[in-house]
Amino acid sequence: MEINNQSGVEYWKKLVVILCFGWVAIWIYRTVLTPIYPEIQSALGDISDTQIGLIATFYFAAYCGGQIPASIVVEKMGQKLTLLCGFSLFTVGTLVIANAPSINMVYAGSLLSGLGCASFFCSAYSLSGEYVPPERRAFASAIVNSGSAVGMGIGLIGSSVLVKNMGMAWNNVLYISAAIIFVMLIIFAMMIKPHKKAQASVESKKEDSVSTEVDQQGSSLLSPELIAVYFLYFCTCYGYYMIVTWLPSYLQTERGFEGVAIGGASALVAMVAVPGALFFSSLADKFKSQMIKLVVALEIAGGLMLAFTVLSPNTTALMISLVVYGFLGKMALDPILISYVTERAPKIRMARALAIFNLSGMSSSIIAPPLTGFISDITGSKAIGFYLSAGLLVAGALFFIIINLRARTKPEVQTA
Q1: Residue 393, number of CB atoms within 10 A of its CB
Q2: Where are the transmembrane segments (predicted)?
Q3: Which of 87, 108, 180, 189 has the fewest CB atoms nearer than 10 Å to its CB?
Q4: Whether 331 contacts 149, CB under 8 Å
Q5: CA pair distance 252, 352, nearest whole angstrom
Q6: Is residue 302 a contact partner of residue 239, using CB atoms and an 8 Å limit?
Q7: Ramachandran area for residue 171 (φ above 0: left; ψ -120 to 50: alpha; else beta)
Q8: Any residues with CB less than 8 A from the CB of 228 and at least 6 apart, and which?
Q9: Cα(358)–Cα(64) distance, integer angstroms
Q10: Among candidates 50, 46, 314, 22, which has minimal Cα distance to 192?
Q11: CA distances from 177 to 92, 184, 402 (A)
Q12: 132 in the Ramachandran plot: left (φ > 0), alpha (ψ -120 to 50) or beta?
């Protein structure tokens, strides 16, 4: 493997930084609109909260739907070409939203952006798997993943400052976002090596010959334990994407936050998530036998924090609830739940199990934004949306622990 030579070492380090900035660009786009939903509503006319929530739904529906096609393109044409095509489409979609005269045009731009972003996940993690040395992969993944928190913070604070404090037109933040995406497109073109289609086909033939033996194990992709973690991840992501989409609007319209305070409070959730992820994943590695208890404790605590966000009598209590939720929420759970899946899925079907897991979580991003908006339209408040998210976290945690307790009473299954 080329990893051991000088240039190889240099390349994987550059690659990790580039992929981290790829997530930064994606998450700036994902969060740049949420603090300025009220401005978009007034600019585009009589737009309801449900219609605003559908902006995120169109994006995430396209993002989820594009995952498998994008992975096929990666296998056939390589990561570099997939990223270049995807980020070109992403740039176009962002510019469509910037020039949108109506909410329907915003939806069209969101669809294009979602399809473009779908190229990133499979390209990024297959590149890191190919070039990063095995003993550095966990650390490299932590750096790459931190880009999402950084991008979220920049998007939330940046649009709050530019639009609410400086009076910039809402669509100008989309032009800035499109420029950042285009810069990443150029960096991908210049810095990522072309795909080498080599030995992968030999390996895959070996695996194909084994797969008939393991076909019975295919059903274990839907074993009770894996179904429980898929559902748990749906519940975890539901609360997260509800927060990402509606927290800024809730803080402004129901809690009296103004200007930069809206984006700043929301960005805190993202920023404290990075040390939370590092702390709890290292804890799970040290105490593997306690992993299930740790997951359940984190989920229930996260649910309580979401409920306390609404119940908080003052700004200080509300901020404490948000910071604690960020520290022990989705990003802290991601590496632990992925580890849980990889330990229980059959080796030959690992990628498929992780794909189902990821799809389970991302499907909540299609449901949570419009459902919370619909609840807000009916009740006049987003509070019930927070309570629903909290209830789902507790329900997911209880289902998860019941299934795992039942599994422990059965004789252990051999793992090859």
Answers
A1: 26
A2: 12-32, 52-74, 81-100, 106-127, 139-161, 173-192, 226-247, 259-280, 292-311, 317-341, 353-372, 384-405
A3: 189
A4: yes
A5: 41
A6: yes
A7: alpha
A8: 399, 400, 403, 404
A9: 9
A10: 22
A11: 11, 11, 45
A12: beta
Most confident of 18-27, 45-54, 124-133, 361-370: 18-27
pLDDT digits (tens, 9 = 90+) for 14-33: 898 999 999 999 999 988 88
- At 355, list the tokens: 């794909």
Q: Which of 249, 248, 288 is nearest to 376 (CA)?
A: 249
Per DSSP, 136 falls in state G
What does the buried/exposed string (b/e) look like for 88-116 if buried means 16 or more CB atoms within 10 Å of the residue's CB?
ebbbebbbbbbebeebeebbbbbbbbbbb
Give the separation between CA 129 and CA 124, rounded to whole angstroms: 9
Give counts: helices (H), strands (E), the chain.
17, 0
How far is 280 from 333, CA to CA, in rounded Å? 8
How many Cβ atoms are within 10 Å of 232's Cβ, its own excluded? 29
Helix (H) or strand (E) holding 310: helix 291-311
Residue pointed to by tokens 């992969």 = 137
Residue 138 pLDDT? 56
Q: Reduce the secondary structure of 116-146 to three states and give it as a string.
A: HHHHHHHHHHHHHHHHCCHHHHHHHHHHHHH
Between CA 89 and CA 182 the distance in angstroms is 10
CB 8 within 8 A of CB 131: yes
The 10s digit of each residue's pLDDT in 285-323 is 677 778 888 889 999 999 999 999 888 888 888 888 888
Between CA 407 and CA 31 the distance in angstroms is 40
Mean local confidence (pLDDT), 136-146:
69
In angstroms, how far is the first alpha carbon of the chain from the final one?
26
Name every residue whose Cβ is closer than 8 Å to that of residue 148 and which is 6 or more positions away in sequence.
23, 24, 26, 27, 270, 331
CA–CA separation, 143 vs 269, rounded Å? 18
* Cβ neighbours, 10 Å, residue 68: 13
Q: How would you label 313-329 residue by residue, b for 16+ Cβ within 10 Å and e otherwise? A: eeeeebeebbbbbbbbb
- Interior angle at CA 181, CA 146 and CA 327, nearest 5: 20
* Mean pLDDT, the chain, whole residue set: 80
- Helices 37-44 and 224-253 sit at what angle, rounded to 10 degrees? 70
Residue for token digits 């939330």? 156
Q: What domains lie within the chain, and their CATH numbers?
A: 1-197 (1.20.1250.20), 209-416 (1.20.1250.20)
